[in-house]
């Protein structure tokens, strides 16, 4: 595989598919290698969060390839957080009182399927499922791909090789072996496990909200699905998961800590879902730079995996695609120059959102229940109303603008002062 204006993308997930669409629209010949089967043929995405929160940055990228309206047709708007106290009382906290902006719950499978289908419409795109990256030679600028069905290995060349292969990226693992490549990964002591409120009981939930059961050291959230069911995610220390090692302990725990959620989930479904799988780990990844040499680039979770508490993982990955497309345009398709500029412009923003995501877990599970949080929120909203361009609250700037993530944190610091 060789030729002028060719691009190889490792990974056909959300970010890889969108990147392929951007590159195909620029006229490149694009080949996507995906380790898994075609996700459109699978009922579930194993080991990955089913629901995602789509906000401004992701919408801007989808809009650039004329897909935003299609996605929003099947997305469910969430206009605020609905907090559930241990007594079963609820409290509504809108995301944006001033202009009533919202975020959208969208199914991972649906979104990935739409992107794959759209990608296949371009005659200059080819996708190869069940193909695995097994070797990278940065000096010769080639990679080796293994066909998992035939066990045939082939050497591949391209003008640009993009790693969009997730938090445990194979391309990044090879990059880590190169000089001056900085890499840091952090696992938090908390994991997550997904439960379900079935459609027949979903109408008992207040619609168009992200529901949160904050409990200081842990929390549970619920996002709506198009079929009226809700995807419930329990975030908790692994030690707490391990302590709930039989049905009696689990039932007692939920009746004590999440009493209003038990009749919504249903005791039998709660037990079967809880013990069906092990809780999944949560990882944060930072690296610098996001490229090696003149042809190799990583984007999305491969470059900046983050814990899910700001709802920005997918949005940041989609913004990567839009930013890189813009940089290519600025540089008249000079790939070597563009990937260097992408690293220069993106690394600090990526680090900033990874840190914000860590912080937001503490806010969602604990600070959101405390009086100082509401005092700060009142002041933020008051000043935001008076100075809509001069004082933008942190959450609004991250979620509802395209202000660089690092600039969002800088604004927060002077606002704190």
Describe the structure.
It is built from 16 helices and 19 strands. With 417 residues, the protein is an alpha/beta fold. The protein folds into two domains: 236 residues, FAD/NAD(P)-binding domain, CATH 3.50.50.60; 94 residues. A hairpin with a 4-residue loop joins strand 14 and strand 15. Helix 1 runs parallel beside helix 4, helix 2 packs across helix 12 and helix 12 runs antiparallel to helix 13. The chain is globular. The protein starts with 5 loop residues before the first strand and ends with a helix. This is Kynurenine 3-monooxygenase. It catalyses: L-kynurenine + NADPH + O2 + H(+) = 3-hydroxy-L-kynurenine + NADP(+) + H2O. Its cofactor is FAD.
Structure summary:
By secondary structure, the protein is of the alpha/beta class.
Topology at a glance:
Blueprint: E1 6-10, H1 14-25, E2 29-34, E3 51-54, H2 56-64, H3 68-73, E4 76-78, E5 80-84, E6 90-94, E7 103-107, H4 108-119, E8 125-129, E9 131-137, E10 142-147, E11 153-156, E12 160-163, H5 170-175, E13 182-197, H6 199-202, E14 210-214, E15 219-224, E16 230-237, H7 238-243, H8 247-257, H9 262-265, H10 267-276, E17 280-288, E18 291-292, E19 296-298, H11 301-304, H12 313-330, H13 335-365, H14 371-386, H15 394-400, H16 405-416
Parallel strand pairs: 1-2, 1-12, 2-8, 5-14, 12-19
Antiparallel strand pairs: 3-7, 4-7, 5-6, 9-10, 10-11, 13-16, 13-17, 14-15, 15-16, 18-19
Helix pairs in contact: 1-4, 1-12, 2-12, 12-13, 13-16
